[in-house]
Amino acid sequence: PQMVQAAAIELFHAMTLLHDDIMDRDRQRRGRPAAWTIWGEATAINAGDLLLTRAFAALAEFGADPTASIRRMADACGAVIRGQQLDLQFETRSAVSASEYEQMIALKTATLFGLALEMGAVAAGCDSDPWRRLGHQLGLAFQMRDDALGIWGDPQVTGKPAGGDLRRGKKSLPVVLYVQAGGQIPETVATDEDVRTLLDRFDEAGVASQMRERLTGIQAHCRDLVGGLAVKKNYAQMLDEMVDLVADRDY
């Protein structure tokens, strides 16, 4: 059952990536052409839809407690879609508050991480709530780090173009923190020079250090949650390493 749960969640995850690339007009995914740029938008949408149906079919046929598993994934799908819609709506706004940003990433990203750990715990016969809470915090850390990489990451490592989030008007955490500190984002960020100018302003406002402070706080909270799990010491160490990987990764 554990492998079925894991496969279903990864099918769900792959669907979100296929659709996300279309909505964000991203032409690359992990250093390779995005599916929609090769086979077209319609085919990429259909492929994502098919993956999601296969995820539910797997849970229905093989999953542990199929009805409950399907309900959990259905609820998660709804939350992720709401978060994605907020992300799209925020692109048209000049400013987004920190609380609005946190609500968006909680829905769009933390939900998926929480689902993964929750369903794994259920399949293993464990109390799932502590695992879901840990997954939620990991998802927040993952998205915040992703926001940083979307602006400061090395394109050769991330597989994404430098400054892509700024060009699209994404209200990622660096943008939210900069505006919160009194900065202004130009209506259009189109050229490499526009991106460099904005990055210089982020540096002056100390945005990167503010992001690191937030991530460090979430890492500490994750370790506290790991410490409260009824797992052997070597497994707790592996979970702590996963926390650091999520928050400190460069890809």
Q: How does this model look, in words?
A:
- With 251 residues, the protein is mainly alpha-helical.
- It has one domain: Farnesyl Diphosphate Synthase (Orthogonal Bundle), CATH 1.10.600.
- The chain has a two-stranded antiparallel ribbon with strand order 1-2.
- Strand 1 and strand 2 form a beta hairpin.
- Helix 11 runs antiparallel to helix 12.
- The longest helix has 26 residues.
- It is globular, with a radius of gyration of 19 Å.
- The mean pLDDT is 94.
Short structural summary:
With 251 residues, this protein is mainly alpha-helical. The chain has helices spanning 2-24, 35-39, 41-62, 66-90, 98-123, 128-152, 155-158, 164-168, 173-180, 192-205, 207-227, 233-248; strands at residues 28-29, 32-33. Helix 1 (2-24) packs antiparallel against helix 5 (98-123) and helix 6 (128-152) packs antiparallel against helix 11 (207-227).
